Amino acid sequence: MNEHEQTKHHGPGYGLFIAVWAALMVLTAITVEVSTIHLGFLNVVSAMTIASIKASLVVFFFMHLKYENRTLKTMVLVAFVILAIFIGFTFFDTANR
Amino acid sequence: MTMHRDYQGAKMGMWIFLFTEILLFGGLFVLYSVTLGRYPTEFHEASKLLDVTLGTTNTVVLITSSLFAALSVVGLQRGDRKLAQGFMAATLVLACCFLVIKYFEWSHKIHAGIYPGGETLIQWAPGKQAFFALYYTMTGLHGLHVIIGMGVFLWVWTRIVAGTCTPEHFVALENAGLYWHLVDLIWIYLFPLYYLIT
């Protein structure tokens, strides 16, 4: 029960989630607009940067990671670092063929 | 009756499952990126054939459904089962909208012969064929996750009705929400990679 009580008190309310949703909508509009400007390689970079900002908002707020304990935060960090190594090394490999 | 419940453990188990999902899609994203590196112009041409308006609409629909999923958890935590169920219903309605839009997009392409082995696509450059092969694989796998997510929410719904998912023990709804947000998370990357490549 104690853990439930804690999440109740520390958990975010309706207003914060609606604000996060509004930010996600604005970022969606920006990413669509930016894609119409011809920037070459920077188009992919900007699209992935905006997608990652949106993903962070979803993970930290909608998925409550901001309110979780250090163990879970570390686990998620480690999982994403492994994914980054996985993707990074593939590119290192394909770029040098 | 007293029962031992490990709330943190239940959530951690869900996250570990989500890591396997992230690796599954991560592998496909690597495949996408390597193929994009090989056929940049073909990917650009193929991407222009997708409808940005429909893709953007689906992004808005899915992010909004994620908002309602998050709100349903707050509703149940605060003791309002009816409100939580209302938000869950909104999530499910938007999930249906997403699938209907996806159905129209796919059927429009398939009627035009643009599918792996289709009469139109087979005549196109290998890069464009690769784009659509990846498009159907990744959006198809994502769509399957949308359907599974809806099933999970319906299951939680029956648990709320049965009184086993309650304001005191809401982890089933919270984990269903985590799954739904992951589906949203994957779409956030799929959308620019397929619809906005310039």
UniProtKB/TrEMBL annotation, chain A:
Protein localization: Cell membrane
The entry's protein name is Cytochrome C oxidase subunit IV family protein
Q: Which InterPro entries does the UniProt entry name for this protein? A: Caa3_sub_IV (IPR011743), Cyt_c_oxidase_su4_prok (IPR005171)
User: Could you tell me the membrane topology recorded for this protein?
Assistant: Multi-pass membrane protein
Native species: Pseudodesulfovibrio methanolicus
Keyword annotations for this protein, in alphabetical order, are: Cell membrane, Membrane, Transmembrane, Transmembrane helix
What residue intervals traverse the membrane?
12-32, 38-62, 74-92
Automatic annotation (TrEMBL), chain B:
Stated membrane topology is: Multi-pass membrane protein
Q: Where are the transmembrane segments?
A: 12-32, 52-74, 86-104, 133-157, 178-197
Gene3D superfamilies with a match to the protein in the record: Cytochrome c oxidase, subunit III, four-helix bundle (1.20.120.80)
Answer yes or no on keyword Glycoprotein. no
Pfam families the UniProt entry points to = COX3
Asked if RNA-binding is a keyword of the record, the answer is no
Q: Where in the cell is it found?
A: Cell membrane; Membrane
Boundaries of every Heme-copper oxidase subunit III family profile domain copy: 1-198
Tell me which PANTHER family the record gives. Answer: CYTOCHROME C OXIDASE SUBUNIT III, NITRIC OXIDE REDUCTASE SUBUNIT E
Family to which the UniProt record says this protein belongs = Belongs to the cytochrome c oxidase subunit 3 family.
| Name of the molecule in the record | Cytochrome c oxidase subunit 3 family protein
